[in-house]
């Protein structure tokens, strides 16, 4: 293929992928199946691997990676102001009066839109390409979070070409997480011993500021763009016109926005949205009302901190008061003790609340929650309710302070309080409660998918002493379990069949089921895709793991640590012996077209390559019939050394292993 035709092919694939990304993430109207989309993406990735010099930053494959300037303080082109709040129709009428006082004689048109409860961000596009993403910060200065915002699939990396493409453009919007995705995120956080996010806004804010963009990429972040901050050479007559342009440029603009010829319509819109609120897929904390005409906006101007041409109309908060009956303690998968308030049942935004997490001892004492206290609860969407405050006036002196116990409530072994972390932890690796939690997550549908292994059965398995490690599940006999309460012949058979069936679960699911901190489903798949087997992953060093496109350093370190622990090594050996899938089943044997320089040789990659990612170099070597390993030994044929190669270089010198520079390596790759 000629260079030109490869480039054409790349461009076509990218345009196609952009089109379908827009259909899926912006319009919510996918035209092709996820499988077709993925296979198109794989095709592009493969082609880009072959022609690394043709990879562009706006390619759909380049959402994760690169972090220039991350975390730096950046100045906004113009201040990102906040809005004055109004509560209820009367205050909206007041706003309308104020506007008309300043603009007598004029007809005022209003735009009403949802006020998304997320994180305000600014996106800068230079010559159509996303070059900077920042948080709102204090309105003047924000934080550079470009690397993380690039992972949000509804944010275009490249503006769709339209009649007028400004050389410089800044748009503003609100990043959010849909409510129904919060449960998944919090489940993962609890497993990782992190306090669950109390609401989608915190989850969005936390995700956008993570240091590892590959973790951000796994969060279901979305965005609505609500305004143009600056667009070189473009003037708008109205706000609605700006929204229209944004939409045509490929930005996600909220579809509930409406225009009204007078404030009455706005009042009615607010009333409607207040009741609609529970049915909206994301958290909305009110309505933003804006004067539509840009000329009128300029006339009205600003006060010190907010525009005179816009207000927000806040919805009432979803709060309730109730009493703390008791406080109990839960023990998580890795032994962290979490205090939990047991409440007098209370109704709050469509659910009856009986429990609220108190996160940790520090948080509990900061809020000074005591048994018997009357507390204010807030619930945001489907999220675990949060204790906002204690109504201290209601105390009568009978309330009791609570302290986490010195012994684990499940196994009675002494707990560990470290000075570095807030968590109080049961460090008994044989603690039955921890084990129960580990079995639960091992059996999840998204992991080994063992149906019938619910809390009741798990409790009996552990309490009877039959199972003291997840691996013991594979030694269970029917006679062992038919005796259990509420487990008859039939369900015993079913359970054993399910456990047997889990041996067919693909290696990626096994890896996910191991419960390695930060290794979610997607990451497990990426890891297996790259390493082809759990053993190869276990033998890899942090560098190699982190070199995978989509895996960051924190995640790589967590994986490495898991495989280093000797207790885990024994556990893994038992699972493997039991017959669980250890290798990826769908890795086709590498296509070795002909003998090449690489055939049958063992390579180690080190340092930074300038032409391609190490993982891609490794893929190339495999395609050419060679093998890559992570450490230099006497069996290594060649070390390929990129920029700032370290200890592996020294080791290769010591052992007399031949060293190739990047150019020497590239020169030996076959040209197709
Ligand atoms: S307009 C000067 N529109 O609310 C105009 N803001 O209190 C100010 N927000 O920081 C922004 N949805 O992060 C606007 N449809 C919307 C919004 C919205 C959410 C946030 C935004 C801003 C804060 C203003």
Structure write-up:
The structure is a single chain. The protein is α+β, with helices and mostly antiparallel strands. The chain contains 24 helices and 22 strands. The strands form six sheets. A five-stranded mixed sheet has the order 2-11-10-3-9. The chain has a five-stranded antiparallel sheet with strand order 14-13-12-15-16. A hairpin with a 2-residue loop joins strand 4 (about 120-125) and strand 5 (about 130-135). It is globular, with a radius of gyration of 29 Å. The structure holds 2-(butylsulfanyl)adenosine.
Compact description:
By secondary structure, the chain is an alpha+beta fold. The termini are close together.
Shape: globular
Report helical residue fraction.
Answer: 25-40%
Q: Please mark out the parts with pLDDT under 50 across 5 or more consecutive residues, or reply none.
A: none
Question: In what order do the strands lie side by side in the largest sheet?
Answer: 2-11-10-3-9
Mean pLDDT: 89
Question: Which oligomeric state applies?
Answer: single chain
Give the amount of beta strand, in percent: 15-25%
The secondary-structure class comes to: alpha+beta
- Number of contiguous helices: 24
Rounded to the nearest angstrom, the distance between the terminal CA atoms is: 8 Å
Radius of gyration: 29 Å
Biggest sheet details: 5 strands, mixed
Q: Which cofactor or ligand species appear?
A: 2-(butylsulfanyl)adenosine
- What is the strand tally? 22
